Here is the input.
Amino acid sequence: MVGNQTPMKPHVAIVPSFGLGHLIPLFEFAKHPVLRHGIRVSLLVVTTNEPSAAEDQLLSSHVPPDLHIVKLPPVDVGKVPLSDGKLILTRFCVITYESLRSLKSVLVAIGKPKALVTDLFTTQAFDVCNELSIPAYVFSTTSSAFSAFLLYLPKFDSEVECEFIDLPEPIQVPGCTPVRPQDLLNHVRNRKIDEYKWFLHHMNTSTSYLPDWALIKQEETLSRTDVECLEWLDNQPSDSVIFVTFGSGGTLSVEQQTELAWGLELSQQRFIWVLRKPTDAACAGTFFNTGSEVNESKAYLPEGFLNKTQGVGLVVPSWAPQVSILGHPSTSGFLSHFG
Here is the structure.
């Protein structure tokens, strides 16, 4: 420091993979070094040519002054090859891979940060960081048991010749309870598909993990619909409402959605259900346009469902303030997907 010149703050870059479910935890993580340690952070965001209203809302709210949002050049989703048909992991890995082609020039342009943090599916950044002599780390938001399995996967892959689902005995993951083959994640059951190859690729690349700790989203920007949802929740008894939602892009088939509606109705259980347009095409049919779809709830539910559950349940189209709902004293349970 020369004279009264203010010393330059340390600078760290963080790059989540594509998708709101990956962006949200790393966006929250990015605030911690800024607010608690006086570090300047650049959040490098994978973007596509398809708009995401939910992502735009997230990145425009509660951003500390030293947290800078840097959008990577958009990827044309229509040109992304789908060798596995409708398998979502392959698609977003390819989108992330294509987006990170610009990473080297972006890191140089923002001043070559002192470190870079990725998530499980942006480990391609490690090659760029090695070239620029930037330390790189993985921030994993999965459970400790699942992280242990992923770290063990390259060794396990080299030792086993058959498909994992065909193994006669549970898998002995070091430090964990044995895992039955039928309980494995779908993406790693078939070693011939691209989804498995992407998983293995990223696990072979990942070497440095950040220590884990509780990371809870503290703030949400509430829309008018969000406020009405929370007001409804205020009027329910304590520990009486189950919150039903299947992630930022999750959808059910028409048959599944009908069965779930009947189940909620017959249970007489109080509920908030985040409803999306059903699709029989893919289990994550709204993943690539999260927050931009228009839903008309009445068109996707069994006839009379809304009338029969009036006062007991609340159906919310597309999106709800998840943190506020889960932290509300009237909420007693959470029905969701595995992510």
